[in-house]
Q: What sequence folds into this?
């Protein structure tokens, strides 16, 4: 595996590099975004370990650059430990977020998990069996990952400021509700399997969750976004599979 480490702490970068090379990986290290950009374009690594506080900019901006052209797995490494920082890191396109200090064992476990999820992809056969999948996707607004605003019907989500509106009214959401809604809106018109949602929204924390956790969070979002939560127009259940976000009629 080719691994790009973007970290200006030379000691930390050298330690990770030594351990990863000992495991048989090819490692490229960069201490600035400019260097990282050159290495990424030339080597096309299989995964990126990305610090946020870099001498020539914010790692979140570089994360968005990568996401605009590639689905390469990205694991953020940072000393920022506020929940809002974690949310913004994930919404900028990172697959996981690890707060310093951390052990190499935890780093490798998180990286392995990110790579497994990336390699797994979507089960296209199950998705296509969902009936109106193709038609729903055609009729749904195109939301671009990393853009400033996502819009579906009256719902507007602002990743940068971590805010949600329905019409002109701001909707108060927890961090988990925000991550779930963002994931659904980013994939508007697509059936998301329960396993996909659990892995994307919860598993980056390393916490065990079950389907009931997902159902409860969906129920709370429906209460906040739907005219009639019992007959949802936006977040709809696809029986036996998962959920789909559609533009309300």
A:
């Amino acid at each position: 595996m080719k691994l790009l480490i973007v970290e200006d702490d030379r000691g930390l970068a050298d330690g990770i590099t030594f351990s990863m090379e000992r495991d048989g990986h090819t490692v490229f290290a960069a201490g600035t975004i400019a260097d990282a950009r050159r290495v990424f374009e030339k080597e096309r690594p299989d995964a990126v370990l990305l610090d946020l506080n870099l001498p020539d900019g914010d790692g979140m901006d570089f994360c968005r650059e990568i996401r605009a052209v590639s689905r390469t797995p990205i694991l953020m490494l940072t000393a920022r430990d506020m929940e809002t920082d974690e949310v913004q890191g994930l919404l900028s396109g990172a697959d996981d977020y690890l707060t310093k200090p951390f052990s190499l064992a935890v780093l490798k476990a998180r990286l392995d998990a990110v790579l497994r999820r990336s390699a797994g992809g979507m089960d296209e056969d199950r998705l296509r069996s969902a009936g109106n999948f193709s038609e729903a996707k055609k009729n749904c607004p195109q939301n671009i990952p990393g853009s400033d605003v996502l819009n579906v019907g009256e719902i507007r989500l602002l990743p940068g400021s971590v805010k949600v509106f329905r019409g002109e009214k701001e909707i108060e959401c927890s961090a988990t509700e925000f991550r779930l809604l963002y994931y659904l809106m980013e994939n508007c018109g697509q059936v998301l399997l329960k396993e996909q949602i659990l892995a994307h929204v919860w598993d980056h924390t390393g916490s065990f969750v079950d389907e009931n956790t997902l159902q409860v969070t969906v129920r709370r979002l429906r209460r906040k976004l739907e005219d009639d939560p019992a007959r949802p127009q936006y977040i709809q259940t696809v029986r036996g599979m998962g959920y789909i976000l559609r533009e309300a009629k």
Summary: Residues 104-120 form the longest helix (17 residues). Residues 202 and 208 are 8 Å apart (CA to CA). DSSP finds ten helices and 14 strands in the chain.
